Structure formats: C-alpha cells, structure tokens
C-alpha cells in the first residue's frame, strides 16, 4: 500500500478504516487488503483508493458511505474522497495474516 501523509494522520485514517466492514465478511476492509492507497494533504483532504472483493459487490454503496463517514470523524479532515479501482483485481493473497486466520484460509 502506498501512503502519502504530509499532515501526519495516517494512523488515525487506518484506525477508522479498520472500523469499516463489508457486511458479508466479518473482517474490516483494511485487513482484507481492499485499501490500495492513502493520500492526505494539508488542506484537510483525505483520499482513499480502494477496491471491492468483486466488481458487482452488492454492498459497494454502503462501504463507500461508511469510509467517508468514518474519515470525516477525524479532526482536521474536511473532505474524504474515495476512489474505487479494480486494477489490480483483489484476491485473497492481499489479506493480512490476521484476516486469513479469521476467515479460515490458513
């Protein structure tokens, strides 16, 4: 994951992303490996480039809204932008070891 963090809020952003879950999977989006890039700037804008487990994910709108709401709770964040990409496509190897254990893939 690429992180550009000139304002020093990366850890807060990651903690908030760990509060967002795909309703169908009991693991947060960060540990699932759905977050590809985090960018913060001094104007209070946080941009998250992420993917979904499948292009036709029925929970896409819920997940995007949750990410924006959680990031907006961070002091100093004026705008949370979420961009979805499917390049590269997500696969199970992108999950953290913790997520793989939780889902029984190890």
Q: What can be said about this structure in brief?
A:
This protein has 106 residues and is an alpha/beta fold. Helix content is 25%, strand content 20%.
Can you walk through the features of this model?
This protein is an alpha/beta fold and about 110 residues long. Helix content is about 25%, strand content about 20%. It is built from 3 helices and 4 strands, in the order E-H-E-E-H-E-H. A 4-stranded mixed β-sheet has the order 1-2-3-4, with helices on one face.
Return the average pLDDT rounded to an integer.
91
Number of strands: 4
- Low-confidence parts: none
Question: Biggest sheet, strands in spatial order?
Answer: 1-2-3-4
The biggest sheet amounts to: 4 strands, mixed
- Helix-strand pattern: EHEEHEH
Q: Per DSSP, what share of the residues sits in E-state strands of 2 or more residues?
A: 15-25%
Radius of gyration: 13 Å
Work out the helicity level.
25-40%
Molecular shape: globular
**How many DSSP H or I helices?**
3
Q: SS-based structural class?
A: alpha/beta
What features would you highlight for this structure?
106 residues; 25% helix; 4-stranded mixed β-sheet; globular; 20% strand; alpha/beta
Write the layout of secondary structure elements.
Layout: E1 2-4, H1 10-17, E2 35-40, E3 45-50, H2 60-72, E4 79-84, H3 97-102
Parallel strand pairs: 1-2, 3-4
Antiparallel strand pairs: 2-3
């Amino acid at each position: 994951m690429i992180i550009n963090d000139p304002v020093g809020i990366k850890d807060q952003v990651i903690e908030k992303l760990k509060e967002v879950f795909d309703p169908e999977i009991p693991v947060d989006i960060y540990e699932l490996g759905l977050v590809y890039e985090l960018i913060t700037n001094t104007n209070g804008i946080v941009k998250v480039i992420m993917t979904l487990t499948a292009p036709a994910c029925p929970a896409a709108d819920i997940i995007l809204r949750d990410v924006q709401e959680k990031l907006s709770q961070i002091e100093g964040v004026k705008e949370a932008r979420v961009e979805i990409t499917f390049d590269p496509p997500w696969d199970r190897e992108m999950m953290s070891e913790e997520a793989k254990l939780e889902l029984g893939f190890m």
